[in-house]
Design brief:
Radius of gyration: 17 Å
Number of helices: 9
Distance between the termini: 16 Å
Bound molecules: 2'-deoxycytidine-5'-monophosphate
Oligomer: single chain
Shape: globular
Helix content: 40-55%
Order of helices and strands: EHEHHEEEHHEHEHHEH
Largest sheet: 5 strands, parallel
Number of strands: 8
Length: about 220
């Protein structure tokens, strides 16, 4: 059997990881795995059950009992199923976004999620995006990318997304929010956000998603041939 190829794409929120990873997976015919969606799905279930999110044992038990499936439609929509229910929209609700980092910081929950992520990549070619894919989940990935962008560029993208949903938020406050989140993500003791030593760091501040996809696809195809 030809060994499966893995592409890891890590980086901070708003750098364009999911757009790039999804499109790259489509181009290469690989499976796209959004690891953040898995943490979001567990968070949603815990909130619905009104569990104490700091109670690691009950969150671990919940993660163990949960079935999470990720599918990508031919029209490129990625759908997330939790115990058979389509939770694609529900996991993006602000309530989930506000609480997910708490759940993702529990070592016991991460251990379960990381095992599942590795299992998904064992027999299939994958593009996996997250925070710790190149460092922890798939340290042997053939191509590792750390996708970043300046806080201003990320804030501008976020501002555009929010505007499309009818909210106008000043740029300054978005930059502030992004810098604070970076500080938290980089300083946490478990799986802190940092590039793997062998990661290819791409700054997407002045690049379109298409350009980034093109650059990574060329490298993956070069490695695979
Ligand atoms: O990429 P996202 O916003 O959907 O991620 C949701 C949360 O999960 C965010 O707080 C970072 C965290 N996360 C993580 O700790 N490890 C991953 N591999 C992916 C996401």
């Amino acid at each position: 059997m030809v060994p499966a190829i893995s592409v890891a794409i890590d980086g901070p929120a708003g750098a364009g990881k999911s757009t790039v990873a999804r499109e790259l997976a489509r181009r290469l015919g690989f499976l796209y795995i959004d690891t953040g969606a898995m943490y979001r799905a567990i968070t949603l279930k815990a909130l619905r059950r009104r569990l104490n999110l700091a109670d690691e044992e009950s969150l671990k038990a919940l993660a163990n009992q949960s079935r999470i499936e990720l599918t990508t439609d031919p029209d490129r929509l990625t759908r997330v199923f939790l115990d058979g229910e389509d939770v694609t929209q529900a996991i993006r609700e602000p309530e989930v976004t506000r609480h997910v980092s708490m759940v993702a910081s529990l070592p016991g929950v991460r251990e379960i999620m990381v095992d599942r992520q590795r299992e998904l990549a064992r027999s299939k070619n994958v593009v996996m995006d997250g925070r710790d894919v190149g460092t922890v989940v798939l340290p042997d990935a053939q191509v590792k990318v750390f996708l970043t962008a300046s806080p201003e560029a990320r804030a501008r993208r976020r501002q555009r997304d929010l505007l499309a949903r009818g909210y106008h938020v000043p740029l300054d406050s978005l930059v502030e929010e992004i810098m604070e989140r970076d500080r938290q993500d980089s300083c946490r003791s478990i799986a802190p956000l940092k590039p793997a030593p062998d990661a290819w760091v791409i700054d997407s501040s002045d690049l379109s998603a298409e350009q980034v996809v093109e650059m990574i696809a060329a490298r993956v195809l070069g490695r695979a041939s």
